[in-house]
Amino acid sequence: MPSAGRSNLGGVQAPFSVLNFEEAKIWAPLISLRLKNGSMPPWGAHQQHQGTFKNERYISDEDKQLLIGWVEAGALEGDAEDQPSTADELALSAPANEPTLAPDGSMWWMGVPDATVAFADPVQVCEEASDWQPTILMHRTGGDLSKHQWAQASEIRPGSSTMHHGTSNYLGVAVPGRGPQVYPDGWGFLVPSDPFITLNMHYAKQSGPGTAVEDNTVGGLLFYEPGDVIDYVVQNTIPMNTDIVIPPGDPNYMATHEHTIEEEILLLALAPHSHYRGKAVKIELELPGVDELETLLWVPDYDFNWQFHYEYHEPRLLPAGAKMHVTWWFDNSAENLANPDPTAEVRWGPKSSDEMMNARYYFTKPEPQGIVVGDAIPESILAQARRGTILPGPAGRLGYEKY
After folding, report:
1. Is 152:329 a contact under the CB 8 Å cutoff?
2. In angstroms, rounded to a whole number, what is the distance separating the alpha carbons of residues 194 and 388?
3. String of DSSP letters for 278-347
4. HEC readout, 21-67
5. Dihedral (C-alpha) 253, 34, 41, 59: value to the nearest 10 degrees?
6. Which residues, 6 or more positions from 205, have their beta carbon under 8 angstroms from its beta carbon?
7. Residue 19 contacts by C-beta under 8 Å, 6 or more apart in sequence?
8. Share of the chain residues as helix, strand and coil, in percent rounded to the nearest 5
9. pLDDT digits (tens, 9 = 90+) for 322-356
10. Amino acid 86: pLDDT
11. What domains sit in the chain, N to C, each tagged with a CATH number?
């Protein structure tokens, strides 16, 4: 899609535009094929979860057949009289989720940020790089970060197509298929004064002559106003199993992990993550005194190129002592076309050629905090926010070196 209409998908950009008839007709056969094989629209959660999570991407059988029928009938153009012709009509027919134009000309899906950060200099992803993961310090480029502030939203805007995903201590996560993190009213997180904001980048591209890329990824924060009330302070954690050993050629290796909820929480969202060999993931809930497990999330066809943030319409109350049972399946066979090396024994690691079986989730304490923005901040919350600051090591480095 054109840059003005491209959502922040963690560096993954739409390969073609369908904003008008001429463009859509060219790709009509491919659209039909992707609808038939189920890869369009992309959305990992099984049909059983329909209505559970925000921003779901299911398509009804009727709508699917309507599109396929249009293609098979020759992809004919509709009646010109039915097309919007004025700016007002175009605005009414446009999707509700449209980017906002900032004064500097940048586009933001969460709204114009109150503070922005960027790299001090563009990052040079050299020709030899294929799977590079530096952690880079972000510098303030706009707004005020000199005082404690409550954020309701954050967004990472990829500066090149080589960024597969990025993870930041205060900006959140940018992965394929996920837009900005915008919390419900009254939910948020604290950004302490003068924060040391870092961004762990994952650059993924083909190596070789002529493949060098310059990256200018930026981030933004949207703050609450003085007098607003923060009832729920958002936290997240990542249950994981780092002991996985996937045998060469195994088409269906299974690994499990259990995670106990120590204190009562409100569960806001789930965000599982693995790499090229990730095949499927199931997160189940065991409640104290209940024998039967409840499926919180079932992703039967996990895709490394589409990693979603599954946020509940209504947060779930989980009691102390509840357990999450996380099961991942991996395909390390030659039948997995994304597999970089089916002859390799694969263990946990940060590179795409390694594997992970994360089950990140977002939560908060269930009791409303009633924190008024502008008033004194509880010391426990301030300490928690400051723990998000990642300082450089003894050599003063953040892992940003030439590949």
Report:
1. no
2. 12
3. EEEEEEEEE-TT--S-EEEEEESS-BTTB---EEEEEEEEE-TT-EEEEEEEE--STT-TT-S-TTS-EE
4. HHHHHHCHHHHHHHHHHCCCCCCCCCHHHCCCECCCCCCCHHHHHHH
5. -110
6. 125, 129, 130, 161, 162, 211, 213
7. 1, 2, 5
8. 15, 35, 55
9. 999 999 999 999 999 999 999 999 999 988 889 99
10. 55
11. 3-93 (no CATH), 100-231+371-386 (2.60.120), 236-364 (2.60.120.230)
pTM: 0.85
- Rounded Cα distance, 176 and 11, in Å: 7
Sheet containing strand 253-260, edge to edge, reads 253-260, 323-330, 278-286, 294-299
Q: Which residue has the tokens 């950009």?
A: 13
| CA gyration radius, the chain | 22
What is the number of other CB atoms lying within 10 angstroms of the CB of residue 308?
25
Question: CA-to-CA distance for 10 and 171, rounded, in angstroms?
Answer: 13
- The string of pLDDT tens digits covering residues 4-57 is 333 333 334 556 777 788 888 999 999 999 999 888 888 999 999 999 999 899
For residues 311-321, average pLDDT: 96
DSSP assignment letter at 90: H
- Is there a cis peptide before residue 192, judged by omega within 30 degrees of 0? no
